[in-house]
Design a protein that fits this description.
The protein is built from 16 helices and eight strands. The chain is about 45% helix and about 10% strand. It has an eight-stranded parallel sheet. The chain has a domain of about 280 residues: TIM Barrel (Alpha-Beta Barrel), CATH 3.20.20. The chain is of the alpha/beta class and about 450 residues long. Helix 10 packs parallel to helix 11, helix 10 packs across helix 13 and helix 11 crosses helix 12.
């Protein structure tokens, strides 16, 4: 086929496209009919044309190297070791380990695991320099591919307290940052903000401001790659753009401090839109959310089991969630093309607008004292609560839809006797430094009413 084939056709301008659309509308208003407003303050238009773009920032999203990952909560080293071996044999390529107590020994937990080729990310429900030192020593001795996720501010935001206090926590982190045999030791958790109902613009801006607190405190001593832990919601293309914008914004911020501009992104589905009733729909939601994570350029993706709201971790739920990722990789070939969204004017436009709006909000946060100051003043919590309330109102009015919950519910569905854990966030009254940012699910009110009436 001749490469000059398309030269035989006249180019169609953006104005010509719009004129043709307006003719087809037969008098209906273009903006009211075809332009869709979003929570992010970004309007979705019916078409995107290269004329509307100037010089765009090239954002490369590598999608050939992403890893099918399994999240494991660890309370016992020996049991965890068996679980890790099992999930690796069943299709996982990496693991995220959430350590609940210091009695879990690293050597026992990772015994006979191919730690050189299997990426392992370790998070702890506590802060311990000696524990991190043990991980560092193990990684150095075994040439292990281990990252750890220490996030002092993330713990403060989600629990309301420091691990000990601001000074001692930062002193501990300063020591942990010296463990240079670990690729990453510092994590910034966006998942807390997303699960609570923050908009994508807020998530990105808070992630930057959150990270900037570490940069202001530690500066060039942060020599390891930073990790961002992200949850992905149901708005498919916007979530792809969110991850792309995150990489771009971090590179801009890191460049100012002359530190590593690359970052690691660990992504998983949101809890905000998951439901107790008609729970199998959760599998559809998590599939598209994992697709967004991969196409957005996440390095590691772990899934949320369809029954995670009401069951303890179990083999069946974990297997199904892991196999969803395997289908994306092995049967849908989501690892065969690098940067698959490049050239999509729609995604490029959303990415650019999200980044610009997030940068504006970030600058406002910094101008008003920074993230920690606004967290302590409850400004961050209030803004997230306001955003969540707006989305909740749309859900309550039936404009934001969760199938099987506020549209086409099955009135015969019964769940009361299948609850192993509570699907609702627990409110614990205790002394806190700041008001914690908790999970706010859209379906909570409906589900509580239905459970009461079963």
């Amino acid at each position: 086929m001749s490469k000059s084939l398309f030269h035989e056709f006249d180019a169609v301008s953006a104005a010509q496209w719009k004129q043709k659309i307006q003719v087809d509308l037969k008098g209906a208003d273009y903006n009211e009919t075809l332009v869709t407003a979003t929570h992010e303050g970004i309007d979705i238009t019916p078409f995107y044309h290269r004329e509307n773009f100037g010089e765009t920032q090239v954002i490369t999203t590598k999608t050939t190297n992403w890893k099918v990952t399994q999240h494991i909560e660890v309370t016992n080293a020996s049991e965890a070791n068996n679980t890790i071996k099992d999930v690796l044999a069943r299709g996982a390529e990496s693991v995220v380990l959430q350590i609940t107590n210091e009695d879990v020994t690293i050597t026992e937990m990772l015994a006979d695991i191919d730690v050189q080729t299997v990426p392992i990310h370790i998070e702890m429900d506590f802060l311990s320099v000696s524990y991190c030192s043990d991980i560092h020593a193990f990684a150095k001795e075994n040439a292990a591919s281990i990252t750890i996720g220490v996030d002092l501010i993330g713990n403060l935001a989600s629990t309301g307290n420091w691990f000990e206090n601001l000074t001692k926590d930062h002193e501990a982190l300063a020591q942990i940052l010296t463990f240079d045999d670990l690729k990453s030791v510092l994590t910034v958790r966006l998942d807390t903000y997303q699960n609570a109902g923050a908009t994508m613009v807020q998530q990105l801006a808070y992630a930057l401001a959150h990270a900037n607190e570490y940069l202001n405190h530690f500066g060039s001593t942060i020599t390891n790659t930073i990790t961002f832990k992200v949850t992905v919601g149901t708005h498919y293309f916007f979530e792809i753009a969110k991850l792309r914008a995150l990489r771009h914004l971090w590179s801009v911020l890191a460049k100012e401090y002359n530190i590593q501009q690359a970052c690691i992104i660990i992504a998983s589905p949101s809890k905000r839109n998951k439901t107790l009733y008609d729970y199998n729909v959760n599998m559809l939601r998590t599939t598209t959310e994992c697709m967004s994570a991969v196409l957005g350029g996440a390095d590691f993706v772990y899934n949320l089991p369809y029954d995670a709201l009401y069951h303890h971790a179990n083999e069946f739920g974990d297997r199904i969630s892991r196999n969803q990722l395997r289908v994306l990789k092995d049967e849908s070939y989501f690892d065969k093309t690098d940067n698959p969204t490049e050239g999509s004017y729609y995604i490029e436009s959303i990415t650019q607008q999200l980044a610009e709006k997030a940068l504006t909000l970030f600058k406002d946060i910094e101008a008003n004292g920074g993230f920690l100051k606004q967290l302590k003043a409850e400004t961050i919590q209030r803004k997230i609560k306001e955003s969540a309330a707006k989305e909740q109102a749309l859900f309550d009015e039936g404009k934001e839809i969760l199938l099987g919950t506020n549209k086409y519910p099955n009135p015969k569905d019964r769940m009361k006797h299948d609850l192993e854990i509570t699907p609702f966030s627990k409110i614990e009254v205790e002394k806190v430094v700041v008001i914690p940012i908790g999970v706010r699910r859209l379906a909570t009110k409906i589900e509580k009413e239905r459970l009461k009436n079963e």
